[in-house]
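Here is a tokenized protein:
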Amino acid sequence: MKVCKFGGSSVADAAQILKVLEIVRSDAQRRVVVVSAPGKRAKGDDKVTDLLIACAREALAGRDPAAAAERVAERYESIRADLGLDEALVAALREELAARLRADRSHPGAFEDAVKALGEEFSARFCAAAFSARGLPAVYVDPKDAGMLLSEEFGSAQLLPESYDRIRAKLAPVPDVVVFPGFYGYTASGRLATFSRGGSDITGAILAAALRADVYENFTDVDAVYPVDPRLCPEATKGEGIREMTFAEMRELSYAGFAVFHDEAVMPAIRAKIPINIRNTNRPDEPGTMVLPRRRSVPGRVNGIASSGGFGALYVEKWLMNREVGFVASLLGILAREKISIECMPAGVDSVTVVFRDEQFPDAVRERVFAEIEAELHPDHMSYTRGIAFLVAVGEGMRTTVGTCLHVVTALSRAGVNLQMINQGSSELSIMFGIREVDLKPAVQALYREFFGA
């Protein structure tokens, strides 16, 4: 049995929904379909979720949300008309949206969640109706009826563990295709709550784990996961992409900048050891990328190069630092008090560099941190450098291979890119290279040619 998730671009209009229908119809194993709210139809278009958030915020601000609500209704009316569905569907949408906008606003987070989740709900209702009208028996299932129980953390809710048994008991016996809205569930008190943005991926992974699916298919708008960011290296799209990767490789790559989906979003499927197949709704014959618990690794093979900018490096130097018990702990304590999360921390005998997202370190925070370090640790020197980017070479085959680092350094040297720092994880699954952010594009292109070029 397969659980399939279709993102916003896959249900953006009637033509896309018909593609989804044919994909589901083509494989009898596709028994559960999770859908997002309609996304952008073209560049410059609005996502339905963004329109609904605008509705909620207009209402919360005491302004009339009618104009934003009408744009939502018009979007669904366009889909309804093109699919030839019953007008009652849009009438129900209008009525439900109006009711939610009139609801109690004493808890702004809960109010906004209830409004913005309407996009997924009616996306699923429309898809179920379209499937059934075209000869594929399908049923809409509401998360409340399915037992999708969430914590009362509106906007970033967490699944309650007892949900898995409830979901399995509800969905497993259903003979028709189940169409399920992503992104939200209900608290024990009956209030609607959403996952974090991109939460339809979370829903799909939860259902795959609950139903012990053979595969969790995540349909998006790319053929596969590419070995480097195609925005920085367009030639990567001409290759076949990564055919297989392990959960560990995906974790390393997604943490360091790969954006097909957030790694935490698919954690339920990973914990259940369910293979994840990333595929393209617009090119369903492409096999996509399989994410597996384990795969046969090829010695020396780098599976991907992740890249991400926007970092800064805090450098602290003190003579005989290595003999001063608690020095690094005190430094990290200062940063923790400012709620700064750390990315990595290369260290020498008398110095330590702490790397984190630059957005966490505006001037006011920097001044406080420098003052505290000076008062508490008495360093000989400290500085902060902005504009740092990271390249991360990831691959299971690197564990048993000599020379991967040399390949990277040589390729970057030929491209005129100077290294700021190198850091290797103890798992030997990845090596991180710090460079200047202005060198990110030529660096990625150089590494693509080195490891994946013809």
Summary: The chain is about 40% helix and 20% strand.
